[in-house]
Amino acid sequence: MATKLTSILFLFFWGVTAQNTCNNSTLNTTVSTWPVTSTDTIYSISTSTNRSICDIARANRMSDATLMVAGETLLIPGETCDDNQGDTSCLISNSTYYRTCVPGGLHTYNTRYNDTRASIALKFEVSLDTITLMDKSANSTAGIIPTDSQLKIPQCSPSQCTVQPYKFTYGTYVDLAIQFNTTVGQIMAFNPTYNYSGEADASEGPVISMPMNCVNLTGNVTVIA
Ligand SMILES: *[C@@H]1O[C@H](CO)[C@@H](O)[C@H](O)[C@H]1NC(C)=O
Ligand SMILES: *[C@@H]1O[C@H](CO)[C@@H](O)[C@H](O)[C@H]1NC(C)=O
Ligand SMILES: *[C@@H]1O[C@H](CO)[C@@H](O)[C@H](O)[C@H]1NC(C)=O
Ligand SMILES: *[C@@H]1O[C@H](CO)[C@@H](O)[C@H](O)[C@H]1NC(C)=O
Ligand SMILES: *[C@@H]1O[C@H](CO)[C@@H](O)[C@H](O)[C@H]1NC(C)=O
Ligand SMILES: *[C@@H]1O[C@H](CO)[C@@H](O)[C@H](O)[C@H]1NC(C)=O
Ligand SMILES: *[C@@H]1O[C@H](CO)[C@@H](O)[C@H](O)[C@H]1NC(C)=O
Ligand SMILES: *[C@@H]1O[C@H](CO)[C@@H](O)[C@H](O)[C@H]1NC(C)=O
Ligand SMILES: *[C@@H]1O[C@H](CO)[C@@H](O)[C@H](O)[C@H]1NC(C)=O
Ligand SMILES: *[C@@H]1O[C@H](CO)[C@@H](O)[C@H](O)[C@H]1NC(C)=O
Ligand SMILES: *[C@@H]1O[C@H](CO)[C@@H](O)[C@H](O)[C@H]1NC(C)=O
Predict the structure, then answer these.
(1) Does ligand 3 lie within 6 Å of residue 28's CB atom?
(2) What is the pTM of this model?
(3) Domains and CATH numbers, the chain
(4) Counting atoms of ligand 10 from 1, which one is nearest the CA of 215?
(5) Tens digits of per-residue pLDDT, 102-150?
């Protein structure tokens, strides 16, 4: 009974939103820029500009959509009818991972702004225990780890990635990780100085080092600390 009611309500709301079609001739398709201030977040910029967080993040090829650096300039794409304001698929997932090591390189990671053990575990898709075991730095028992601290990443052995140059024209590292079977953390480790690139012309996209098809080479791998 409850299920039936839910599906009826779902169809009702789906019908209403589908009916409320977006008239693309009324959209503001002007591309503009946004100077990032210290109080800006991707959410506040999304609200101010009427673009979804993921449309902004993808247009700027952001490594991490929540990582903003005051003083830099973001590209604000034109409004589109496919822009879904609720889309969070470009954000690093909050899933719980059970992996104990990362297949393929790199073996070291330089922490980014506001990284914690928990955020690093999510970037590399390993369990929090795995990062805690590996991170021996005395100052990071909890909370934020100072930017640019070097951390050892536990590697699966034997394992490998194929690393190739890749012209990054659109998306976030989350999109790339899914496309190339790797993790956000590994793409960050291979490209330690890259954060995002707000070039208006997609053909100007930067070339990054892309770890691809990162896999364990046997079913019985050992963890290298
Ligand atoms: C879309 O907007 C334009 C300009 O405002 C208008 O001429 C047109 O009739 C609208 N189309 C629909 C399907 O509402
Ligand atoms: C606007 O919508 C019409 C009808 O859905 C479509 O044919 C047209 O390609 C769209 N234009 C743009 C610029 O998206
Ligand atoms: C369209 O958006 C641009 C910024 O992208 C803004 O400067 C301009 O005022 C907007 N135009 C209208 C009619 O809202
Ligand atoms: C915001 O953008 C959507 C398309 O994503 C558009 O349909 C809507 O009219 C815009 N709203 C305003 C206030 O500009
Ligand atoms: C992850 O969880 C935090 C805290 O609950 C929340 O602020 C954030 O939006 C979540 N991110 C995603 C991608 O769900
Ligand atoms: C590789 O092996 C580790 C350790 O057994 C495991 O946690 C992980 O899920 C494996 N990775 C893949 C992609 O199968
Ligand atoms: C990108 O992030 C890294 C790590 O937080 C930082 O060291 C670097 O200065 C940032 N680069 C730019 C161009 O802001
Ligand atoms: C960095 O972390 C601090 C403390 O948790 C938080 O107040 C701040 O909003 C974070 N900054 C960004 C840009 O996420
Ligand atoms: C740890 O923190 C203390 C006090 O803030 C500081 O003196 C020390 O240099 C830090 N050590 C490392 C490895 O960052
Ligand atoms: C990604 O790697 C896993 C583990 O080896 C494999 O099962 C899966 O098929 C791969 N996916 C793609 C899209 O290559
Ligand atoms: C897995 O590898 C370890 C060390 O190489 C070995 O001791 C162990 O017997 C292997 N386990 C299986 C199930 O093959």
Answers:
(1) yes
(2) 0.83
(3) 102-224 (3.10.350.10)
(4) 5
(5) 999 898 999 998 899 899 999 999 998 888 777 666 555 568 888 998 8
